[in-house]
User: Fold proline dehydrogenase from Streptomyces chlorus.
Amino acid sequence: MLGPVILAASRSDRMRRLVSAAPVTKQVVDRFIPGETVDEILPVIDELTGNGLELTMDVVGEDITTPEQATAARDAYLELIGRLGLLELGTRAEMSVKLSMFGQALPGGHDRALANVRPVVEAAAAIGTTVTLDAEDHTTLDSMFAIHDELRKDFPQTGCVIQAYLFRTEEDARRLAANGSRVRLVKGAYKEPAGVAYQQKHEIDKAYVRILRTLMEGDGYPMIGSHDPRLISITQELARTAGRKLDEYEFQMLYGIRGEEHLRLAAEGHRMRVYTAYGTDWYGYFMRRLAEKPANLRFFLRSMVSKG
Assistant:
């Protein structure tokens, strides 16, 4: 399987240099990351919302090694939120944040990440939107869930992400579904050991459906992060069985993948949110997109051959 190899490469400085230097890379990266600055991303937000879509915004960058970088990450989100507020786009775009970007791995990282993310959550609430805490590798999740619980005391709309490939997630889903959280369910995009995660696609898919059923039957707001047509159909059936209306759950897909499906679901009345990343530190995000779906890797390799 190429996925684990690509994920390992996402942590390699040598591979980062090679991929970044390839002449075709920027053209391919632009498929998934449509801008590097707020000024570049605002027209994209305007176009997507004009087509009936909603967004969750991710300022890319995870390899934070200094407190100053963590502070800069906080400020980048605050700048974006401020601009969205001025343009009255706040209700159409939420934020997705990785706590590693806010200093979670630094000394005193848990408290530091909480202190840095709280102003972002406050600013989002002030313009009528919210923040979802992205899930990262399994070693970070206890801290992420604790920060999520703390933020929800003042901002109950704060969301979090759970990953179907982890053994622990079914229990996490039962807890979250019971207390009314906003929960995004994804398959998972990190290289995890066999002791904590399913390794085979069919096992992950089965776990995804079990967890999805728990969320649909619970009291929370499920956010279905998947491009898989089969899982989308299963979601619709489980929602009907649970008696959920179209505005009581939503689909989420990545910018640059299955764009026609985004529009189709929105036209049918579903809430369809596009996960849209921007920024200069794109490498880790880009490599995980290649690892998640063989078609993405084929697209990249074809582009390199045709432009080489």
Remarks:
- The CA atoms of residues 9 and 15 lie 6 Å apart.
- Residues 303-308 have pLDDT under 50 and may be disordered.
- The beta strands are 54-59, 93-97, 131-133, 159-163, 182-186, 221-225, 250-254, 272-278.
